[in-house]
Amino acid sequence: xxxxxxxxxxxxxxxxxxxxxxxxxxxxxxxxxxxxxxxxxxxxxxxxxxxxxxxxxxxxxxxxxxxxxxxxxxxxxxxxxxxxxxxxxxxxxxxxxxxxxxxxxxxxxxxxxxxxxxxxxxxxxxxxxxxxxxxxxxxxxxxxxxxxxxxxxxxxxxxxxxxxxxxxxxxxxxxxxxxxxxxxxxxxxxxx
Length: 192
Fold this sequence. Notes:
This protein has helices spanning 14-25, 32-36, 49-60, 72-81, 92-106, 123-135, 137-147, 157-170; strands at residues 3-8, 29-31, 37-40, 43-46, 65-68, 84-88, 150-154. The protein is α/β, with parallel strands linked by helices. The strands form two sheets. Strands 2-5-1-6-7 form a five-stranded parallel beta sheet, with helices on both faces.
C-alpha cells in the first residue's frame, strides 16, 4: 500500500488514523482541509471549485501518500489514484462524540501539524454529521464498490485499533512485508 484514501464522516477519526498509518508505513500524510481552505489576508476561505479541482489533482498525483478527508465531489478521482481505501463507517453518535472530544482537546486552536484546521462546532456541521449515514453513505458505498480498489470498512473504534495493531507488526523490519494481505476486502457492505 502506497496510496491510501481515508474517508468517513466528520468526527470518525480520519485524521488520527491517517497520522498513525503514515507513521507506521512511512508515508506522507495529506490533510485535505489544509489544502481546501486557503488563508487570504488572515481569513480562511474555501477554494473555488476550480482551485480545489486543480489542487486535488496535484495531491493525488503524488507517488506515495495517505490522504485524509471527505470532500465527496473529489472522492471518485481520489479513489482512482489510490490503491487502498479505508472507510470509517462509524455510527452517528460515535462521530458526534468524536467532534466533542476534539473540541475539548484543542479548545478552538488550529493545529495544522496534527491535521486539525477547525474544531469549531456549528449547527450546520452537526446537521451534516447527523445526516451523513442517510445522505452521504449510499454514494460513498457506490463509489467504493465501483473503484476496483482494496477497500477496508471499519465500523467501530475497536476495529480501527485492531487494524493499527495488525499494521504495526507488519511494518517491523523482520516481518519481511509491509502489510498483511488478509484484512483487505473489495466487498462493500450494502447501503442500509
